[in-house]
## 1
Amino acid sequence: MTWHVGTVVDTKTETPTGRSIVFDVPGWTGNLAGQHVDVRLSAPDGYQAVRSYSIASADSSQRVQLAVDKLPDGEVSPYLVDDLQVGDQVEFRGPLGGWFVWRPTDVGPVQLIAGGSGAVPLVAMARAHAAATSTEEFRMLYSVREPADAFFSSELQSLTNEHFALDWIYTRKAPEGAARPAGRITADDLARLAAPAASNPLVFVCGPTGFVETVATQLVELGHDPQRVKTERFGGK
Amino acid sequence: MAIISRGFAGRSREHNPELPPGQYLTEDFPVLSAGPTPELDTADWTFTVQTENGPTKWDWDELHALGTEEVHTDIHCVTRWSKLGTTWRGVPLDAIFEKVETEREFVMQYSYGGYTTNIPLEDLLDGKAWIVSEFEGEPLDPEHGGPARLLVPHLYFWKSAKWIRGLIMNDNDEPGFWEQNGYHMYGEPWAEQRYW
């Protein structure tokens, strides 16, 4: 696999600590929804740092969108979120990963469950589902601290239709009038809002380690087949 | 010559000779698993080696009666973090293969929960691999593969199967779970054998 040069063509602030970035990457031949990419930064003295990021876009173009949350003590994410400007260049290698992916030809219901910036690969799946005008039943459950912390919230809302349902969990501060008080996701939330185990959905869970551990364990207790629960985690415990 | 990312300074220029290329140091212990963490009880746990001569099986106590040793080592994850100077306790694979006769040279590790990963037998022998059940003096957390996982620290950490259930001896090197999903058949960190 070779490295491709990506040039920033657009950036957008998504949350107080995160933003989305669109790159033009000549030679990129597209990616599946859910795949990730190695991003390499080089300093003038030759020093390099490489990190993997999930890809928010999912099409066959040479435009690649990432959405990055800034880690307070990170080396790469603060640069991507705060410093990178239109016209700047980084390098890409990928797409990577063949497990945590959804293909428009996949049959059967899908439940997406995101925590924080873990929404990124799941947004790619929701976009791919919409772009393919798939009639497979898609549901997304997105847990954030408060409404301002959601990535792509207005776009996700605009994708909702009879085949795509979107529900929110607010862990610290719910918007006024929300039926559910703020609090961490529970087995009751999953029983109420997620596709039932009886429909044997394919479930994608992505978020911080603690969130994914909790959700995946609860899903299995609710009767979901562990083989149908795909997880992607970030961070330690 | 790589392109320069304008304004990127990076953090540290101190090269740590213990870090393989492309890795960064973490004090954390990130968790990477493809699915839910299985709930396992050591009372029901068994470990099996399947060869051309049939299976050899141990329960928890029988396996640990083979003798454990302390292992002090660095670990390297293909997602680019490395953790230096970790301490584990476990049964060396050498002790297990003293009890097993096989002519086959390749191994498929398989786990509770369905994970698999392939490895040549020679990479499990001569003090290179253990079935570990303690990390830093404590029982191994389920998220990190407890009650017991393989530890093969000279390869990227996906080659150290969590929730290990057994080994199948094969004549050929067949790809395991990640190896079928884009990752390298061998996974040597110092050669950066990350992907196909």
## 2
Amino acid sequence: MNITLVLFLIVVGITLVITGWAARRTRTTVQFWAAGRGIKGWQNGLAIAGDYMSAASFLGIAGLIAFNGYDGFMYSVGWLVAYLTVLFLIAEPMRNTGKYTLADVLSYRMSPIPVRSAAAFSTVAVSASYMMAQMIGAGSLIKILIPSLDTTLKPWFNWTILGTKLDPSITLVGVLMMIYVIAGGMVATTWVQIVKAVMLMGGAILLSFLVLLHFGFNLGGFFNAIAGVKDSKTGLNFTQPGILYTYGKTQVWGVDKALLENVSLGMALILGTAGLPHILMRFFTVPDAKAARQSVAWAMGLIGSFYIMTTFLGFGAATLVGKSNICATVAPKCTPNSNLAAPRLAEYLGNSFFGTGGGEFLLAFIAAVAFATILAVVAGLTLAASGAFSHDFYVNVIRTHLLHGHVSEREQVLVARITAALVGLLSIWLAARVGATANAAALVAGVAFVIASAANLPAILFTLFWKRFNTWGAVASLVGGSLVTIWLVAIGPGWTLPANPHPAFPLQNVGIVSIPIGFVLAILGTYVGELVKADRLAEQKFHEIDVRAQTGLGAEPVAAA
Amino acid sequence: MEIERSRLSQSSAAEQEPLREAGPPGEDVAYWEGLEHTDEFRQLVAARMRFVLPATVFFLVYYFLLPLLNGLAPELMRTDVVGHVNIAYLFALSQFFVAWVLAWFYIRRANSLFDRLAATVRERAARGRRPAA
């Protein structure tokens, strides 16, 4: 047995022990969805940071910086600053008015049937895009980092479902995350997230320390080395902006295309975070607004330091390993894979500081951390998606409002578990189906941020702060914002490889167009809908949500243990 | 306030479909609107706005300056300041510290001021509710 497999099994073992412990404490809905609202501020902060520092940001950003230098750093900046939107406008009002999901807040003022259905739709759209990206990433990572696992499992996967051959690695990730969510609910998911966040921070600190140690803690020398790396196409060195975003080359609508792409990306990053269902859901797990605020502070501290460290990892890989050596199997003229920048850097540092065995061990450790990261993030997403479906759609729309029935705690938790299983199975199948052709993992994750900012954010902000806002406007932004985003991405240059040379929509980052459309739809929907049928109650109920959001009056209490 | 409450609840119950989830429809409208108009609540909202509005505008402008300057003035941004550390990198790094400092200011003010003002509104609500209940 090789060392990667051993470390990997240890990680899985730890998470399963946590799940077993959490499962004994998960009986009621408030425990399943909100961990009994007993998560402490710092714990929730770690879990938020864990949810956020996905494989896309750990391996993805390190890779982007390793291959493109400075421009890759732009993602890190946007992803941290985004938390100011969350802190100033979203976190405390959410805790004060919410129960388990985003739709709980909206249906304070709006007609529950249309609004809950629309919110379930947008939540599933966001979570599914994010989840597919993670699962695709997981599948390809395991194949490269722990090939023995994939080949060992292969003989058992000789069957197809609905014309799609299941992928061993993706299925393994899917099954594990289903166990966390179904058995342990929010308690297990939170603790898996905390353990993983600590491991990830530890890994990043260790690698950054070794990079700096290599340069004798001489930052000037480090930057000289980075400036020595030149991009072959543009001739710029790696400290300079303009390699990924080639400014001044092509124009769109009379404006520099690279500039539009960069600003558009920034809008999605800054505004999208505040609308991501699996992040919003975390604010319902803490006892009060003060703890919600504290958890954002912890998350910002961790996420910020982590992203600053990704510069050391990315630049370290660029200078020490070099783009041409970052491949699945290192050979002359191999195909570089940016996702492997951090693992290859770990291998290099291990070898140079601890001898041959050290390289293998560090590579294995980083691979195990990356795997834990994907597992934990996917579990959080499954919880959000199944929350939207079972709590919002099944329990509140179908059973309560359409059938006028009473839904027992037992039934609610049972339905939650069944939907989590269904969401898990569906994502295993979808990821296997897309997996073979996908080079789109990062793009799919980006789509999640745009849908969140074009559909969810206008609905949340206007519900909390705009008196005239009504059911019409909420549905218009939730459904319209999602559909416009998906449509623009579909007709854009992104999805297919090689990229469509004459796309109907010129930009890969669609946020600059679809986010304003989402807000306009919310406003237009409100005024036009008002003409069709007045929604007086939405206006009257504004007073209540206004006072509750600001003061925490009547907020959901901490559940008895 | 008591009279207004019952009037409003009757009228709204008559003409609206009973749909919202937070309590019976219309019942509490006057109660919440009354709280909204108290001095305590207005102080809380004003205090929050005085911080959140300028801080939000500031961080949005400061953040979008980075991609805009990178795109519009690349030569300026590529200027080295110390060794090979250029303006673009320092500006990007400064975003982290600006975000942390703004968050720290907000949390300090929220812990000391907003929480206290919110507590006075809740006290007022508890006093106002007793005769009504």
